[in-house]
From TrEMBL:
RING-type domain ranges (all copies): 175-215
InterPro entries according to UniProt: BRAP2/ETP1_RRM, RING-H2_BRAP2, Znf_RING, Znf_RING/FYVE/PHD, Znf_UBP
Molecular function terms from GO: ubiquitin protein ligase activity; zinc ion binding
GO biological process: protein ubiquitination; Ras protein signal transduction
Name of this chain's protein: BRCA1-associated protein-like isoform X2
Gene: LOC110760820
Gene3D superfamilies (alphabetical): Zinc/RING finger domain, C3HC4 (zinc finger) (3.30.40.10)
Organism lineage: Eukaryota, Viridiplantae, Streptophyta, Embryophyta, Tracheophyta
Length: 353
């Protein structure tokens, strides 16, 4: 289950149809619903704030049980080229079952905004989720709508309170690209078109302006150095706040950052795979899929074209992405084999002794 805390000194500002620049079709549709039943007309509002997303530790984040679902949904990111009216039209007929939409804007995120959606009941919430989750906002673009069920939403004017995980929870990134890097059980995102490893072109389409982690991944020619000691060998980047630290085999500042902040997900920049300090394992989608327990081997997953025409989406072999992905997957398999072999040898040694 997911929890949301919003650091905000703002309040909800109601949006009238004129303020949101709704189209005639949308306006007439909502007006008709309001006239037929004034008590169920959806409310629209906007609020400024910084969203902190948390998940409970110890079980899958996928909505596979009634206990993990609710009538409150969180649309993680909507590209900024979509107006509020565009998003409502994107919702289609599902807007008829909405009680309230709250558009959350972060002044530091120029490329996207988030949306809180409250539905009338669990059935309509499930319908909203299954209809729109995983759907592209625009057929020709890379951005996909990712929706999570929320247990609660809290607003606070304290940055410290907003960034402190509830008991038994850990914080997740709100950057959609960074979330898609994580495996399904961790992120609650069942499937993606791309694992965003190496210099994939869709990173720049989503969050190149606002996400420091994505900028580091794109700018491979300039390796960042540890924010504390300045060491540039094997840097690790916190996917929550973008802190750069050195590995545990140098000065260990990345590990110390986790202990100080409880930000447990860190990107090993050289291999571009995410490590979970709490689970003490990689949780990058490239490494494993906990849904079926098997390594992901679909080398076509990075293609962004609707027609699967890699020449159009710059994912062809000439870009070097396919080769990099293949090499990384082979390296992951070799690592798993070496660990298994070492474990077996240790077991045999103990038997002999």
């Amino acid at each position: 289950m997911f929890f949301l805390r919003v650091h905000s000194v703002d309040t909800n500002h109601p949006l009238s149809l004129e303020d949101a620049e709704f189209t005639t079709i949308t306006t007439s549709k909502i007006t008709s619903a309001t006239e037929s039943n004034p008590n169920t007309s959806p409310k629209f509002s906007e609020r400024r704030g910084i969203a902190h997303l948390f998940r409970s530790i110890g079980h899958s984040s996928l909505p596979n049980s009634p206990a993990s679902r609710s009538t409150l949904l969180f649309v993680i990111a909507v590209p900024n080229y979509l107006s509020f009216d565009d998003f409502i039209r994107f919702c289609g007929s599902r807007i008829d079952h909405v009680l309230e939409l709250v558009f959350i804007r972060n002044d530091g995120m120029e490329d996207r905004y988030s949306v809180l959606v409250e539905l009338k009941n669990q059935m309509t919430a499930d319908g909203f989720y299954h209809t729109l989750n995983g759907k592209k906002y625009s057929p020709g673009e890379a951005e996909v709508c990712h929706i999570l069920f929320l247990l609660s939403v809290d607003y606070t004017d304290s940055d410290e309170i907003a960034g402190t995980p509830p008991q038994g929870c850990t914080e997740l990134p709100t950057c959609p690209v960074c979330l898609e890097r994580l495996d399904a059980d961790t992120s609650g995102i069942a499937s993606t078109l791309c694992d965003h490893s190496f210099q994939c072109p869709c990173i720049s389409k989503w969050t190149y302006l606002s996400c420091q982690v994505c900028r580091f991944c794109q700018q491979q020619d300039e390796k960042p150095a540890c924010s504390v000691c300045g060491i540039s060998v094997n840097p690790w980047v916190c996917v929550i706040c973008g802190f750069v630290g050195c590995g545990r085999y140098t000065e260990g500042h990345a590990v110390r950052h986790w202990k100080d902040t409880q930000h447990c997900y860190s990107l090993e920049l050289n291999r571009q795979q995410i490590w979970d300090y709490v689970g003490d394992a990689y949780v990058h989608r490239l490494n494993q899929s906990k849904i079926d327990g098997k390594l992901i081997t679909d080398t076509d997953s990075q293609c962004l074209s609707v027609e699967r025409d890699c020449d159009r989406c710059e994912c062809s072999d000439d870009s070097g992405i396919s080769g990099a992905l293949y090499s990384s997957k082979v390296e992951t398999i070799v690592d798993e084999y070496n660990r298994l072999l070492a474990s077996q040898l240790e077991t045999q040694r103990q038997v002999v002794l």
